[in-house]
């Protein structure tokens, strides 16, 4: 149990949130969701080349092979994630920045896709993280160019949609190009979403999905965040040449090379939120799913969620306590300091500061975690926080406001003992936020 959780009501809610961590992980499993989709498509016992990439690649491939008869293929998993899939080659890539292993993984995907012919089936299993784990740069670009521009974008505060718009136009795999390589084989893209709004073309930069964005759009992202002058010159030159029509665009809707490709969503953040809401409802909480599309600066989102929590506690709006407010998505962090942490930890720390300002003894607590097990630059998935936490930090000689300013939220939660540490989970359905507002329900009030 974390140290100094303040009033009893906060301690009880924190305890329930620790139980909720396991529920989040179970609801995020991908194997059975992939198997169910393939069964619904009538593909069981079909022969297919199987390609999988992303943080959920192992789970998705295992689920697929419970239904398909593989004719070979490759699984691209994060380095350090243990596991294999019988009948498929398994290679590793790097995340969040691509490396030499990512280039090898990308080459293997293209080789397997290119080996399929007319009448063959290719099932491509795609989950978040695939943008970095597998890569083949456009002609004229070096690995160092991709690493540098990705680092600039990740630190800029750009949304995942904006980042992937740039990535698609620097790659021979992304933006539908992997599926185009497999033409005229029949391609089924199966996606597990880690992006707000579940846009398939943005999940791992949509390797099998027609790309509605352009080289001009990619240049506009660099301009928007003041990166055009600092981005690698070869990156800027390629995007400028593409905008002038001198480099072939990514496959667009209606492209003949994607006419034999179909794409389906197998799992999303909303699936996790709904499963979690059902469990918390069984515990006696009134539940409200706010959104699966959280975006924006993490600390600002945290403050906004605190304002909703305070309104519910004070006036019973939008729902009366005991209540579980649930949300998911992918917020961003503009890195200004040299500390360690991630989007979920920043959100949770900002929430606790806002709650402490108005009501440090309020019966409230928050869980913010990433389903993949890694939150930003930290070694944890996220954190649990409560309104009394800033008081406890100040009593220990730590300034929570300064920790937030330095992007050093991990230090706050390491002191509190409330880091959520799961290790790599083998899934990736974005971040989950749960706010519990008391008083906690009693077991005889409906707890399952």
Automatic annotation (TrEMBL):
One of its GO terms (cellular component) is cytoplasm. The keyword DNA damage does not apply. It comes from the Archaea. It comes from Aeropyrum pernix. Coiled coil: none annotated. Keywords: Kinase, Transferase. Gene3D superfamilies: Glycerate kinase, MOFRL-like N-terminal domain, MOFRL domain. The keyword Oxidoreductase does not apply. Residues 323-430 form the MOFRL domain. Residues 44-240 form the MOFRL-associated domain. One of its GO terms (molecular function) is glycerate kinase activity. This is Glycerate kinase.
């Amino acid at each position: 149990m974390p140290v100094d959780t303040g009033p009893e009501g906060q301690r009880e809610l924190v305890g329930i949130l620790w139980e909720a961590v396991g529920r989040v992980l179970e609801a995020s499993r991908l194997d059975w969701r992939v198997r169910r989709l393939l069964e619904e498509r009538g593909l069981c016992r079909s022969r297919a080349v199987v390609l999988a990439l992303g943080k959920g690649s192992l789970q998705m491939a295992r689920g697929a092979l419970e239904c398909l008869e593989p004719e070979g293929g490759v699984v691209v998993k994060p380095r350090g994630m243990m596991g294999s899939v019988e009948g498929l080659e398994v290679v590793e890539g790097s995340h969040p920045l691509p490396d030499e292993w990512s280039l090898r993984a990308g080459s293997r995907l293209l080789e397997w896709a290119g080996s399929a012919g007319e009448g063959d089936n290719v099932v491509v299993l795609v989950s978040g993280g695939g943008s970095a784990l597998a890569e083949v740069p456009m002609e004229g670009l070096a690995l160092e160019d991709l690493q540098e521009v990705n680092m600039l974008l990740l630190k800029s505060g750009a949304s995942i949609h904006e980042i992937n718009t740039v990535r698609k136009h620097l790659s021979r795999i992304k933006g539908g190009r992997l599926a185009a390589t497999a033409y005229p084989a029949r391609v089924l893209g199966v996606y597990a979403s880690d992006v707000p709004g579940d846009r398939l073309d943005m999940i791992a930069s949509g390797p099998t999905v027609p790309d509605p964005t352009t080289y001009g759009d990619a240049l506009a992202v660099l301009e928007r965040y003041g990166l055009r002058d600092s981005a690698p010159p070869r990156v800027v030159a390629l995007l400028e040449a593409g905008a002038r029509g001198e480099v072939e665009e990514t496959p667009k809707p209606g492209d003949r090379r994607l006419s034999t490709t179909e794409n389906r969503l197998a799992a999303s953040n909303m699936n996790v939120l709904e499963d979690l809401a059902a469990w918390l409802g069984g515990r006696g909480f009134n539940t409200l799913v706010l959104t699966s599309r959280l975006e924006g600066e993490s600390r600002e989102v945290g403050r906004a969620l605190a304002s909703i929590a305070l309104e519910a506690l004070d006036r019973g709006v939008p729902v009366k306590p005991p209540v579980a407010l649930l949300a998911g998505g992918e917020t961003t962090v503009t890195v200004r300091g040299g500390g360690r942490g991630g989007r979920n930890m920043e959100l949770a720390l900002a929430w606790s500061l806002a709650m402490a300002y108005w009501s440090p003894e309020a019966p409230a607590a928050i869980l913010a975690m990433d389903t993949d097990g890694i939150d930003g630059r930290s070694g944890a998935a996220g954190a649990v926080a409560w309104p009394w936490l800033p008081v406890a930090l100040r009593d220990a000689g730590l300034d929570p406001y300064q920790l937030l300013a330095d992007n050093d939220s991990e230090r706050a939660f390491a002191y509190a003992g409330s880091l959520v540490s799961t290790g790599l989970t083998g899934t990736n359905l974005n971040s989950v936020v749960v706010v519990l507002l008391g008083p906690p329900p009693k077991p005889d009030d409906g707890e399952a």
